[in-house]
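User: Can you fold this complex?
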Amino acid sequence: MPDTLAGLLQVAALVLLLALVYRPFGDHMARVFSTEKHWRIEKVLYRLARVDPDTGQRWTTYAAGVLGFSVVSVLLLYLLQRVQPLLPLGFGRGVDGDTVPPAMAFNTAVSFVTNTNWQSYVPETVLGHTVQMAGLTVQNVLSAAVGMAVAVALVRGFVRSGTDRLGNVWVDLTRGVVRILLPISLVFALVLVATGVVMSLRSGVEVTGVDGSTTTLPLAPAASQEAIKELGTNGGGVFNANSAHPFENPNALSNLLEVFLLLVVPVCLTRTFGTMVRDTRQGGVLLAVVGALWAGLLAVAWLAETHPTGPATLAAGAAMEGKEVRFGIPGSILFGVSTTGTSAGAVNSLHDSYTGAAGGVTLLNMLLGEVAPGGVGTGLYGLLVLAVIAVFLAGLMVGRTPEYLGKKLGRVQVSAASVSILVMPALVLLGAGLAIALPSTPEALNNDGAHGFSEVLYAYASAANNNGSAFAGITVTSDFFQVTLGVAMLFGRLVPILAVLALAGSLAAQKRVEPGAGTLPTDGPLFGVLVGGTVLLVAALTFLPALALGPLAEALA
Amino acid sequence: MTTTEERPTSERRDRHARRTGRTVGAGAFSPGQLWRSLPVALRKLDPRTQLRNPVMVVVWVGSALVTVLAVVQPSVFAWWIAVWLWSTVLFANLAEAVAEGRGKAQAESLRRTRTEAVARRLTAAGAEEPVPGTELRIGDRVVVEAGEVIPGDGDVVEGIATVDESAITGESAPVIRESGGDRSSVTGGTTVLSDRIVVQITTEPGESFVDRMIALVEGASRQKTPNEIALTILLSALTVIFLLAVVALQPMAGYAGAQQSLVVLTALLVCLIPTTIGALLSAIGIAGMDRLVQRNVLATSGRAVEAAGDVDTLLLDKTGTITHGNRRATELMPVAGVPVAELAAAARLSSLADQTPEGRSIVALCAAEHGLPGGADAREAVAEFVPFTAQTRMSGIDIPDQHDGRQVRKGAAASVVAWVAEQGGTVDDAEVGDLTDGIGRQGGTPLVVAQRDGNGARVLGVIRLSDVVKPGMAERFAAMRAMGIRTVMITGDNPLTARAIAGEAGVDDYLAEATPEDKMALIREEQEGGRLVAMTGDGTNDAPALAQADVGVAMNTGTAAAKEAANMVDLDSDPTKLIEVVEIGKQLLITRGALTTFSIANDLAKYFAILPAMFAALYPALGTLNIMRLATPQSAILSAVIFNALIIVALIPLALRGVRYRPTSAAKLLRRNLLVYGLGGVVTPFVGIFLIDLLVRLIPGI
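Assistant: Here's the predicted assembly.
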């Protein structure tokens, strides 16, 4: 079968799978976050945590819950790494002996709690199974649940009328974990094992190569972590090679399943949104925006990869550097565009080796603010914030105080939305600008010129957007990178969350107004174009100069 | 309720303009204004006046920075950039100055009315003492006689007088002001033409109606409106993002080996931040208020104007707003066996001496449709008029016997039928009942006409009196509906009548047999549903509802209480003005949104001009972005800066006039405005910068 046809069939299969689950799964999530009934296991958890699940919280309390939960999570994960030598199943792994150094432990703790899963460490040699399972995998689940909770709180802001209560953060977290993330992860972990993903507590297995020498292939409880790594759009690999490693992603089928897992929650959350606001067309518009952006970027990257211009690539016949032969160009690009469009950051190929344009696409995909379709929860609230900005501008143009879903957008709402969209560009631009100005930085880069700059820009874009994928080609183990990237991840996650919850609170306090002929319709193609245009324009205007010095200069060469 | 006879609004406005010496029509703009406003614009270069506007502060600082750099390291390029950056600030000032200038001219004409009158204050003992008008306090009583100027705003507490209010309203016909009732309010600066009144002052000095109006048109008391504040926040956020993008660019460029000069970076920054809307924002706001004043509406705050654009429900009084103030005769319906001509003759005869509007309308109807003379002849003139009384509930005429001895009566059915019976005539009760009931069902009022002559007494027929809906109302309400505004008619009529008139006028809903409490309850109910309500009113009993409504427009003829409670006062006392107010409010928001979109869309072209200019030497591939084929890097950057400055001047007329607004659905409006200002905003600068570059490239050294 020709490569392109195989690729198109994969895309078709993926879209079909997503289309099949879109309504039932989206509605299921809406029910999970709307129902009054508690499961027995949840009641036990609430009793243990001394939480009254039926008490609603103000946005400030909700935010304090999210913030406190995240801070405690960072501390615990940091400590867990620092005490690794005392833990079982450590196999003496670590840096310079069996410890994880403070800067690296901080970076990793922040990285996994913020759903970034940027990895400055080599998993096989630095972390034992206990930290992987009890630390990283746990945060894979919890950080995803936090994203969903915040998104749901924002949706409730639109739905509720004249109240200061946004729901209960502990209930939302618990339900997200118990009713959505854990069951699906369990099922797909087993499916992945069936496709050949390893699941082992052994340190490694000795194999004899064809030349007679023996090497140790590291093993890990990979399947259980792999499912939530994708489903929770986390992306932190059990192995350094991430989803390019045959033990994590052995074949085309597992590859397709993993891409599906990456997209399923963020895509279906648009349905959840539509169902919760009792107008599924509203969700449909967002889905269309997300789908168009994803498909457009995929098309550009695909075209660029199949029409390479570099002399080496032309000599080799295809742009296969940094790609796994078992996935080919389509399987790699599909994964690459999906992982940077969500906040996953798992990789099955080396983005650093993509052609200038395709590498630029993965970078741009993150710089859009990760909304195509974005991370679990983060994608939805990121898109809604951009929609708020779009509605504000367009709403003025129809001669009314702008309204979105029956809520007026005034000073408070625009301020919150502005803060939310301001954080990521500030972190990326300042971080990359600062890093590139350091005399030591060129030494940390594999490449010079435009490509070298792309590597730095990508690192900060990945951190500030909580993506976690690496362009690679850059060594980030220096304290400067560990700390600044850690700070970028932390602020890139928490500041927008605070702004979004403030927005939710101000919206919930308003009375809902029924839309009329004079209000801007937000459920048609025109609005879709408007939101998509806003997403592209904001990112383009902010990052064009930086992109011009990196991927654009490469792509046009 | 005070009613207003219809007069063409444009005629009114023209007269107003003549009276007050205004020559500026609504929205007109002449290039001469730019020139005249230049000195003011130059004075506004003071950095302290720039602080209100975050976007322009950045441009000001950038201009100063480039000027310093040009002095330290002189080059043709740096000086040109410096000049055009300062021009950007200057043009922004110019926009504001022109907008304010138009208000100033109006304020001047108002100020002339505020003479330093000496008031005759009444002391507690009842004696008069002369005090300057500016020293009057709330509660003071002053005497004003014919020929004197009323020294301050207040209520008439004693007497009745005709007052010339043309100084305020432009309306030359004098109005009656009397103590008690809904016509007691007088405005300082107006002149008493006849009689003597005692006025109780209701405002402190400096807060009078005229003072507020002057402050308003001058923009002195202008505060940013809620939407304007929200927009300013968004523009500030964009400015910060672009500031970061430019600041971070320098190390990135340095790493690539193409360190940029500060002049170029500043030029890039000024081109990117939303200077177009930043420069025009305050001019748009001032011009919006100005458009309102042009229409003789005085708003107490810009907030109210903005709210007018948001109105969902419009409450309109039936009488005087939707219908003509008085009922008119529209049809004659004879009983069986009576020719219509006979009924017409009797109806006319009975109304000849009846000087009520209804009576006059009956004569007019008979003249128009039955060819009868409009005036009385000598024989008719001697007839004795029987006036309407509350007891008889009918009016009519008795013609002396020596002529033909006729008696004609018209009035309420029961009374007239009783009169006929009294005179010995017989009445077919069922037939008359059918006629009158039918008229009532259709929203009219029946007047039964009877006559006694040599043949005895009998009922001739019925006159239908109807509310006549003003021409063009249905179209206006249809336009409102297209805009998404629901109209509700308020009337004291019974539900039957109300429904008929509501149907004819094309309003969406009606409130019949309405008391002030009902009106209030309706407003509350609408607001509970999250809808914004606008209404007009003039009576003291309207005051609570005016205060409760989101947009309350009081008639200038109304009481001080109504004017105090409302957030707008219509000097023409034209209740349909509310519709125009809504349109002005919408236009204000649309202009802001459209110019913001235009401003942001402009940036794309500027990148295509400036980025290749900065980096094509380093990465020749980036030269392909230079799709405008600009001559040199310097000419490209300078052209972008010049375009950025000139577009402000080019858009001043639009900012002052407001974006064209036609009542239509939001979706259509959005599509049109996105196309014109979004797509237009992307395309225009490509053309503009290309054309400017054709000239700029001729400058030696660029």
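Residues 226 and 398 of chain A are 48 Å apart (CA to CA). Chain A is about 65% helix and 5% strand.
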